[in-house]
Design brief:
Blueprint (H helix, E strand, L loop, with lengths): L3 E4 L2 E3 L5 E7 L8 E7 L6 E7 L3 E4 L7 E6 L4 E6 L8 E7 L10 E5 L2
Parallel strand pairs: 2-10
Antiparallel strand pairs: 1-3, 3-8, 4-5, 4-9, 5-6, 7-8, 9-10
Length: 114
C-alpha cells in the first residue's frame, strides 16, 4: 500500500504563494490519476486538482488559473503550486489517488490571512 506524506504548507498573506509537495513511499507509476484534496474547517473534503500520467490536468473552478499540479514519477512525488492565494483557500491539503484509495496522510495546513 502506497503511503503519502504532504509538506510545504504554512501561513501566508492574501496574494501570496506556496508550493506543496507529496512524497509517496513507493512508486506511483501504477497510479494513473493523482490529485490534491483540501478540507476546510466544518466542510467536506473536496478535490481541487488532478493529474493524469503527468500530462492532462483538471482543476476545480475555485482554483483554476491560480493552482498548478505536477508530478515527478521518478521521484514518486506530486506537487501543487499555489499562487494568488485567498482566505478561502485556507484548509488542510492532502494528496491521494483519484478516486481516493490510498491511506490518507496527515495533510499540510495552509492558512491565508492578513
Amino acid at each position: 500500500q502506497v503511503q503519502v506524506v504532504e509538506s510545504g504548507g504554512g501561513s501566508v498573506q492574501p496574494g501570496g504563494s506556496l508550493r506543496l509537495s507529496c512524497a509517496a513511499s513507493t512508486s506511483i507509476l501504477s497510479v494513473k490519476v493523482m490529485g490534491w484534496f483540501r478540507q476546510a474547517p466544518g466542510k467536506q473534503r473536496e478535490l481541487v486538482a488532478t493529474i493524469l500520467d503527468g500530462t492532462a490536468t483538471t482543476y476545480a473552478d475555485s482554483v483554476k488559473g491560480r493552482f498548478t499540479i505536477s508530478r515527478d514519477n521518478a521521484k514518486n512525488a506530486v506537487y501543487l503550486q499555489m499562487s494568488s492565494l485567498k482566505p478561502e483557500d485556507t484548509a488542510v491539503y492532502y494528496c491521494n489517488a483519484v478516486p481516493a484509495r490510498l491511506s490518507w496522510g496527515q495533510g499540510t495546513q495552509v492558512t491565508v490571512s492578513s
